[in-house]
């Protein structure tokens, strides 16, 4: 496969392959050629072509060291203690490591990761907590951690300020008070910035308001991202929490009437806009989560890179309901899934 192999070719051929390897995984319900004309338009094969694509087989999540289903609800509150002034201190340990990750069955990607997973751990705390991140660079390239939110300049995780780049084998402690409340993110800020983000160095950062948010029945973290398999600065695969089609093959389980809260973060590199669409339902939307009052009641929202927001909704009836990017190319290349709603 050469660099002239376009993203549309993935859909047209119905296969994903890694640059320089012969391994491939078929996309179910797609074929190498367009549908034949009218005389065959009603055959079983022709009908199958119009279904949603999906991968054949299963990613080895155990070998990857993370499972997208578990990431939905894996909130890291750190190790909590009390400081002398009564403030809560939360300590986290982060290690940057190079890691080969199976993105789709038989398709591996040489990722850069925080703690061996993409996205990195979902940091969660309460407004006013003291945050201490013990960061060690165990990779082969210089990295940093840049947090969105308030903090002193030396904690900003950018080259040339404070500790600057953390070289391989070095460590640094990022420490600051958690504010403002809302849904934020963190990512490496070494250059070339696009490459450090695209290879996997990012995660969600939730600061709860001191009084908390209204109670819900289930909360999920969804980080929208993509994978540039051949390093041509164009995404070949799109996903939520990294593995394409995962929530189509493993629907998210909810019950009728449950209050659902989704923390949605866009960390897609190389494409200007991403989106989220919920089928047969509407949600309340809280941009950046910095207000307890929603700004919109809708079924589709758009986010540029680093934009994020909180979605809240319930389902009225049992059944299987899709969610996906409303950019069809993204959905057909992996960014889609299902809620399975039961009584």
In terms of per-residue confidence, which ranges show pLDDT below 50 for 5 or more consecutive residues?
1-5, 10-41
Percent strand equals 35-45%
Give the number of DSSP strands. Answer: 24
The count of helical stretches stands at: 7
Can you tell me the CATH topology of the largest domain?
Immunoglobulin-like
Keywords summarizing the entry:
disordered N terminus, 7 helices, Immunoglobulin-like, mainly beta, 10% helix, 3 domains, 343 residues, globular, five-stranded mixed beta sheet, six-stranded mixed beta sheet
How would you describe what is shown here?
This protein has 343 residues and is mainly beta. The chain has three domains: 7-55, no CATH class; 61-208, Immunoglobulin-like (Sandwich), CATH 2.60.40.420; 218-342, Cupredoxins -  blue copper proteins (Immunoglobulin-like, Sandwich), CATH 2.60.40.420. 10% of the residues lie in helices and 41% in strands. The chain has helices at residues 7-13, 44-48, 61-64, 68-71, 193-198, 246-249, 328-332; strands at residues 15-17, 24-28, 54-55, 75-76, 79-82, 88-104, 107-114, 122-126, 130-137, 146-147, 171-177, 182-187, 202-208, 218-227, 237-240, 252-255, 260-266, 273-278, 283-287, 296-298, 300-304, 308-313, 319-324, 336-342. The strands form five sheets. Strands 15-14-17-22-19-20 form a six-stranded mixed β-sheet, with no helix packed on it. A five-stranded mixed β-sheet has the order 4-8-13-12-10, with no helix packed on it. Strands 5, 6, 7, 9 and 11 form a five-stranded mixed β-sheet that branches. It is globular, with a radius of gyration of 21 Å. The relative contact order is 0.14.
């Amino acid at each position: 496969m050469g660099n002239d192999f376009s993203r549309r070719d993935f859909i047209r051929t119905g296969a994903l392959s890694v640059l320089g390897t012969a391994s491939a995984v078929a996309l179910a319900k797609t074929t190498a050629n367009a549908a034949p004309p009218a005389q065959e338009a009603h055959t079983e094969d022709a009908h199958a072509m119009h279904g949603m694509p999906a991968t054949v087989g299963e990613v080895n999540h155990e070998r990857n060291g993370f499972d997208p289903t578990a990431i939905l609800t894996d909130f890291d509150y750190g190790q909590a203690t009390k400081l002398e002034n009564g403030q809560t201190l939360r300590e986290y340990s982060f290690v940057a490591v190079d890691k080969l990750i199976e993105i789709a069955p038989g398709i591996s990607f040489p990722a850069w990761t925080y703690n061996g997973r993409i996205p990195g751990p979902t940091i969660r705390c309460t407004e006013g907590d003291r945050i201490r991140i013990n960061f060690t660079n165990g990779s082969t390239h210089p990295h940093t951690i840049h947090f969105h939110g308030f903090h002193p300049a030396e904690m900003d995780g950018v080259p040339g300020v404070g500790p600057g780049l953390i070289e391989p084998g070095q460590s640094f402690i990022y420490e600051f008070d958690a504010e403002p409340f809302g849904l934020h993110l963190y990512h490496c800020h070494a250059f070339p910035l696009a490459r450090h983000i695209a290879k996997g160095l990012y995660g969600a950062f939730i600061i709860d308001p001191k009084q908390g948010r209204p109670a819900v029945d289930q909360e999920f973290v969804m980080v929208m991202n993509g994978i540039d398999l051949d390093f041509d600065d164009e995404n070949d695969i799109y996903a939520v929490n990294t593995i394409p089609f995962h929530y189509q093959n493993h629907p998210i389980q909810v019950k009728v009437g449950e209050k659902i809260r989704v923390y949605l973060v866009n960390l897609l590199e190389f494409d200007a806009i991403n989106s989220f669409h919920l089928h047969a339902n509407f949600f309340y939307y809280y941009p950046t989560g910095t207000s307890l009052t929603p700004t919109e009641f809708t079924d589709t929202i758009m986010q540029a890179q680093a934009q994020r927001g909180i979605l809240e909704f319930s389902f009225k009836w049992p059944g299987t309901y899709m969610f996906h990017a409303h950019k069809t190319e993204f959905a057909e290349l992996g960014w889609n899934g299902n809620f399975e709603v039961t009584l």
